[in-house]
């Protein structure tokens, strides 16, 4: 019985070390550019991207994955997986085109916004985004 309690305590400790990342929003923004990852540490930075979100900047920061641009409506991001270790974060993502080909529209980019506790911000961590076929999409190193 004593071994079971030790095993349960170990599982609880491991669970406490897990990073709690919340996907807050997905959508589109009219702010143009190419594929990129942006770390958002203040409301002004998020507003410049044309995105709104309830980030509590004293305790949280945001990470935005922007993909595009597109001139046909209906594109959306699919996040297949997120993996992390002490040195890097690897996101497997792609954009799904509209089934019907979409309609002509003003240029836009798709985005996914994640909200992360500030205690997990580590300078020098390499963040990379790749497709399911392992083709690079974008990357950055946290400043």
Written overview of the protein:
The protein has one domain. It is built from two helices and eight strands. The strands form two sheets. The protein has a four-stranded antiparallel beta sheet. Strand 4 and strand 5 form a beta hairpin. The longest helix is centred in the N-terminal third of the chain and has 15 residues. The N and C termini lie far apart (48 Å). 19% of the residues are buried.
Blueprint of the fold:
Layout: H1 2-16, E1 22-29, E2 36-40, H2 43-48, E3 60-72, E4 76-84, E5 88-96, E6 104-117, E7 126-130, E8 136-141
Q: Which stretches of 5+ consecutive residues score pLDDT under 50?
A: 1-19
What is the CA-atom radius of gyration, in angstroms?
A: 18 Å
Secondary-structure element pattern, one letter each: HEEHEEEEEE
Residue fraction in strands:
over 45%
**pLDDT averaged over residues:** 87
Structural class estimated from helices and strands: mainly beta
Largest sheet: 4 strands, antiparallel
Q: What is the 3D form?
A: globular
Q: Helix segment count?
A: 2
What is the helix fraction of residues, given as a range?
A: 10-25%
Q: Count the E strands.
A: 8
How many domains make up the 3D coordinates? 1
- End-to-end separation in angstroms reads 48 Å
- Main sheet: strand order: 1-6-3-2
Spell out the key features of this protein.
48% strand, mainly beta
